[in-house]
Amino acid sequence: MTLEPLLAASPAIQIHVAAAVAAFGLGSIVLSRRKGDRLHRIGGRIWVALMLLVCLSSFFIHTIRLWGPWSPIHLLSVTTLFSLGSGVWLAMRRQIEAHRRTMQSTFAGALVIAGLFTFLPGRIMHEVLFGGGSPVPGILLAVFAVAVALLVLQRRTAAGPARTGETGVDIAD
What ranges do the domains of the chain cover? Predict the structure, then answer.
């Protein structure tokens, strides 16, 4: 594992990766803990800000070009921006179950699934984790990240809404 490819990358890529890693970590925490309390709302706001940074920074990355300077990842960024807006709007309207599904789907699609594609050969994150030295630490890190994401999503899906009343609004509010 070596950070050299990332350190040699453009500032847009460095910002993108830093925000994505932070969003993955914080999102895992927010999705796995109690919902609706003050810490959930603060963590959620920070997570949305990080995801906005991930999306916006992607528009300055043009390493894969299929349509002029654009690629399918840019379509994912546009979709993620709409999902984030929808998730926030649903929370503000207290449509908690729809908010939960939207944010879990955004986490899974924009961070977990899209993140896995960054480890394909020829990509910077592949070089970071598998280039130079033993690939074992990178493989273990990738397996750990996927396991955390799957556990968080499975736990939230199995548990259903946490401590909600008949209206779907968190009792703690």
Answer: 4-159
**CA 170 – CA 31 distance, rounded (Å):** 15
Report pLDDT for 132: 56
Phi, psi of 97 (to 5 degrees): -65, -45
Global pTM reads: 0.74
Q: Is the pLDDT of residue 127 over 90?
A: no
Count of residues making up the chain: 173
Are 36 and 94 in contact by the 8 Å Cβ rule? The answer is: no
Q: Is residue 32 within 8 Å of residue 156, measured between CB atoms?
A: yes
How far, in Å, CA of 140 to CA of 131, rounded?
14
Rounded to 10°, the helix 38-58/72-92 angle is 160
Helix, strand, coil distribution of the chain in percent, nearest 5: 70, 0, 30
Place of tokens 């939960």: 100
Instruction: Give me the phi and psi of 74, to 5 degrees please.
Output: -70, -35
